Amino acid sequence: MKPTLVILAAGMGSRYGGIKQMDSFGPSGETIIDYSIYDAIRCGFGKIVFIIRRDFADVFRDTFEKKLRGKVQTQYVMQEMDAYTGGFTPAAERTKPWGTAHAVLCSRDVVQEPFAVINADDFYGKDAFEKAAAFLQKDVSPRLWSIIGYQLSKTLSENGTVSRGVCQADAQHHLIGIVERVKIYPEEGRIVYEESGVKTALPPDTPVSMNFWCFHPEAYDYIDGLFKKFLADKGDNPKAEFFIPIVGDAFIKDGKGAIRVIETSAQWFGVTYKEDAPEVKASIQALIAAGVYPETLWS
Q1: C-alpha to C-alpha distance for 53 and 66, rounded to whole angstroms
Q2: Alpha-helical segments (H) within the chain
């Protein structure tokens, strides 16, 4: 059974400005999502599930169906605030859904096979998809999930600081925890993060999470149960969010299983800031020149 790729594309893109998931970065108008899908298909994924917002659903669907029809199975899921809440009434001030783990839960009815989850606005690279596909086809189980770990030095922006989830793993490469480090940037030949005004160096090859996860379909039951608990504990907070790392952390601490950290050598590209766009375009063009991608993905 071929694995499924779930793409989280419902984000607002507040720092970037606008719906960055739809911007063109390739020479033939390709979005970053196009490159992820292209890599996923050639690495063995059989279905793409987009998690989107209703306010841009028609434009989004029209854009991708023209490219992907006949190449891969596609489905579109709306992340609605009331989805899988069991009738819970949120605070009146709440204006958006519940975060990335809730977005994953919204895909439950259309995914029955092992699946990976990625962000729409991150360029992950072929090596990451190859390793994810291999894990999902051979090793994933109800008690073994995985996360793709990127080398910190390959995930920075030249246009500002970044926040990264630093992966802590044991000798068996099983995740112990993810520590969120904010305000990470290069300085004088090293990489540092700031916390309470104190700078601390991090090794360049430190594995960090870029929200590329691999799950067994039985994970949906666990995520659903955690989400109900989250709503009971924090649902009245209009800014509370149910993130995937919360699920991963609970999975480990509850003794439900292990999460393998699969390290990749791939170069990550992202558009955290609007100023990142020209660099991303140049990086993609360099990969095309090197023969990694064709000039036009969907000829």
Answers
A1: 19
A2: 32-42, 57-68, 100-105, 126-138, 219-234, 244-253, 277-289
Q: What is the pLDDT of residue 284?
A: 94
Residue 107 CA to residue 79 CA, distance in Å, equals: 9
Q: Quote the radius of gyration of the chain (alpha carbons, Å).
A: 19
pLDDT at 239: 87
- What is the per-residue DSSP string for 184-212? EEEETTEEEEEETTEEEEE-TT-EEEEEE
Q: What is the pLDDT of residues 224-236, one digit of tens each?
A: 999 999 999 998 8
15 CB contacts (<8 Å, ≥6 apart)?
A: 272, 273
**CB burial string 213-232: b at 16+ within 10 A, e below:** bbbbeebbebbeebbeebbe
Q: Are 264 and 149 in contact (CB under 8 A)?
A: yes
> Quick one: DSSP state of residue 174?
B
Query: What's the start-to-end Cα distance of the chain, in Å?
Result: 27
Q: Residue 49 CB: number of other CB atoms within 10 A?
A: 21
Tokens representing 224 are 């659903």
Which domains, ranges and CATH numbers included, belong to the chain? 4-148+209-243+259-289 (3.90.550.10)
Whether this prediction's pTM lies above 0.90 is answered by: yes
In 3D space, the residue among 278, 263, 267 whose CA is nearest the CA of residue 35 turns out to be: 267
- pLDDT single digits (tens) 161-181: 999 999 999 999 999 999 889
The two three-digit tokens of residue 175, written as one number: 């995740």
Q: 47-51, 136-140, 159-163, 274-278: lowest mean pLDDT where?
A: 274-278
d(CA 224, CA 213): 17
